[in-house]
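User: Good morning. I'm curious how nicotinamide-adenine-dinucleotide would be positioned relative to this chain. Could you predict the structure with it bound?
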Amino acid sequence: MRIIDHFIAGGSASGGSRQGDVFDPNSGQVQAKVSLGTQAELEKAVAAARAAQPAWAATNPQRRARVMFKFKELVEKNMDELAHLLSSEHGKVIADAKGDIQRGLEVIEFACGIPHVLKGEYTQGAGPGIDVWSMRQPIGIGAGITPFNFPAMIPLWMSGVALACGNAFIIKPSERDPSVPVRLAELFKEAGLPDGVLSVVHGDKEMVDAILDHPDIAAVSFVGSSDIAHYVYQRGVAAGKRVQAMGGAKNHGIVMPDADLDQVVNDLAGAAFGSAGERCMALPVVVPVGEDTADRLRQKLIPAIEALRVGVSTDAEAHYGPVVTAAHKAKIENYIQMGIDEGAELVVDGRGFKLQGHEEGFFVGPTLFDRVTTDMTTYKEEIFGPVLQIVRAKDFEEAVALPSKHQYGNGVAIFTRNGHAAREFAARVNVGMVGVNVPIPVPVAYHTFGGWKRSAFGDTNQHGMEGVKFWTRIKTVTGRWPDGGADGSSAFVIPTMG
Ligand code: NAD
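Assistant: Good morning! Here's the predicted structure, ligand included:
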């Protein structure tokens, strides 16, 4: 059986006390084993990073940017191969796998502009003969711990900016679909990134804990579920690191009575069921405002959901493929049963879905619930599957309150033709990323990505200038060149600029 090994110091490296199963979600079969690393593998990656980072940091930013340009070219050249690899482990359809890679590449495009971004600030004549300038310096060695659902985009969110800023970087990908980050590291090497600057170590909690405790790793970026994000944040900060930890989500889509319902249904189909709902920016909760809006929306949603095509991830006609593992499929189906038990109305039932010829695949049919209420566990928790819940709101105020009071605050959307309502909503809602007639409001790479409340711990977002801030430290220099040299005076009071 194929073994997926670590990528350390520019090459493949075996090692680890255990192995994990990597499934083909289409067939339900184990297709490879991944080495689950230990402290020993991490030490090798850290040693390689320590050796390589000073020269990489001293490489001028334009040259570092050239590696990014070249890497982008190589990923584009290898797009088909990467998308198939990604899809074969994750289960998302090929077109969506390409989107996953493309969104990551957009961060690389941002990183190509690093010479401009790192210019720093300068004040000439802050005092007599005194100039002040600030520079952004790399933090040293950074690490990224990533989830299964975006195996290309999220490692690239982190590594693209961290590397461009002059850091060495260690990726610990999800053990459920670990191959793409290794391929990306190989392509970085081909693009000219010196060996040791980027490593990929595989593993589970044991490796995560080793990263969090390692004294030479200065900063950790995590994306995954909220309980683990919180744990990572606390343990990393306790070890003296800079930590940003993005967590789970339960994004709401508010539908105002004046919205174009045909467009809303199209948007919801993609946003709730695309990638089998395994997106932190999926839209699993729809909030029609007013009973009449709810009834009209429900009527249009049912046939649209029933028409969705679930297929193997290589089926070009499929709207979505299998979920990632059998355990995840069982978890989603348990939530569906819980929804029924809690008193929600099951309108379309996706349980027990079997795809002919792929009966053992991890498929879940599209599911719709109506009359979901805020006291239900299935409303409070993230399901992370192809399940859409209708929560009816009586008016705009109630609709703003729902996502605002929810424990998660990643994304939210409003569908309306009323500019005032949209503007009010965007200003007042207690959520980090807002879409106005945009169902999946993932910000472009040169803005920043990050939720609020239990969707993110730490105060710095991913990519854009927030990413640059996270992966650098600012140093401010105050310099004085008195005319004719030292003036021989001493200052015993705190110096001011007069
Ligand atoms: P997960 O929390 O199970 O795993 C994320 C990472 O944590 C993996 O690398 C995993 O190996 C590691 N991990 C797992 N258990 C651990 C433990 N007990 N201790 C330490 N580390 C552990 O998440 P997932 O299932 O891979 O991804 C889906 C989750 O990620 C969803 O909750 C989704 O909303 C969230 N997500 C959030 C964002 C965001 O930006 N907010 C983006 C994508 C995904």
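The mean pLDDT is 97. Residues 145-150, 172, 174-175, 204-205, 208, 223-225, 228, 246-249, 280, 382, 384, 410, 451, 455 surround nicotinamide-adenine-dinucleotide (CB under 6 Å).
Let me know if you'd like a different ligand tried.
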